[in-house]
Amino acid sequence: MEPRIEYATTTDRLSIAYWTLGEGIPLIQMPAFPLTHVHLEWQIRECRRWFECLAGKMQLVRYDARGAGLSARDVTDFSLDAQILDLEAVADQLGLERLALFASGDAGMTAIAYAASHPERVSHLILWCAWARRSDVSETSETKSLRAALDQDWKIYTETAARVRLGWAAGEQARQFAAFLRECVTPEVLRDAMDTLYDLDVTSFLPRVRCPTLVLQPRQIDTPDVKVAAGLAIQIKDARLVLLEGPSPLWFTGDVGSVLRAMGDFLGVELEPARAAEDRGQAPVTILFTDIEGSTALTQRYGDARAQEVLRAHNEIARDALRTHGGSEIKHTGDGIMASFASGSRAISAALAMQRGFAAHDESHPEAPIRVRIGLNAGEPVAEEGDLYGTAVQMAARIAAHAEPGRVLVSNVVRELAAGKGFLFLDRGDVVLRGFEDPVRLYEVVEG
User: Fold this and answer.
1) Quick check: is 52 in a domain?
2) Is residue 1 part of a domain?
3) pLDDT at position 386, please?
4) Domain span at residue 341?
């Protein structure tokens, strides 16, 4: 089940997005700024399996850091005290008197400071690829080069950061990682945050941490290296250091089983990797296509520059709806966008939001309207190299092509997935779609 996004308010009046799932020991998995987006993380299969595994044994809480994801973006204070306010806002709203913390990267500094300052509240501390002093990792040549790239070109920075983090041989995975990073935070916010984060040092808090602490570190990671992890374990009383095999700095990839077993042994619960979706019955994926009417004639009608403006407007409106409703863009088709959703109702909500956005654009730009067809279907597509294939995808594209401009058409399976969610469906009868022998029952979704 996809968790419901809620908001907590910090004492400095910022909205922090969070969700909670499962029952039992409260475990807050802190955001590793800037890689935090509580909506989009759930769309990453490996990440979702990690969350589902933890939530099967405990109450898992995940929140977005200030300035990133779905939390407040208009932020200037990234101090250690400010980051603690985010954690406290979520914990207080949920009424958590005792909690365990899982923190990686820069979040480790916040977790260490909070655990040392609130021994009555933190039951366990788990540090993954973390550090207590930012200079331990920010003085490397790679980090300095990345910092310089941030001031030059945002896309180059994200693409380079992805390959530094995942390895230079990473291909499609690195491209997706870079795209995810661009959704999490803006370059302006990241620059402001770095000015503060790079000066943080919580080593004085380490001897004051009294809760049981587990330090997890893959041996093959260069930043941070094993010496940094060992330094944490040495300075925290009775801390347990577990060195793992593998080069992945991401907690939900690589030898996940070893990570979970170490955590389970530490917390006193049995944790094993979640079975793959194909082993337990894969939930349907809802596919959405947009199709701009007369896209091939845009250039002849408006000229190159104006046609490109129309296309950019379409992309901005569609992508904003995807971000709001938890969709994942699969690819740009040239005259539209293909996206996927774990939820049929969210896909429909996104489609309706897109059509509202296109209509609002047309009112203010009647000289260059955007007329878009939208079609949805659901099934079990084949995922390969960042794309989706199969009958479910082909049918979604055909449904979009059959729709009238300004309308949203869905298959019966999508209508059934969204039953009881408050949508109004108009039966448009059986339709023979190109490439399909049997007629398909289609429904138009209208605003209630």
Assistant:
1) yes
2) no
3) 72
4) 283-446
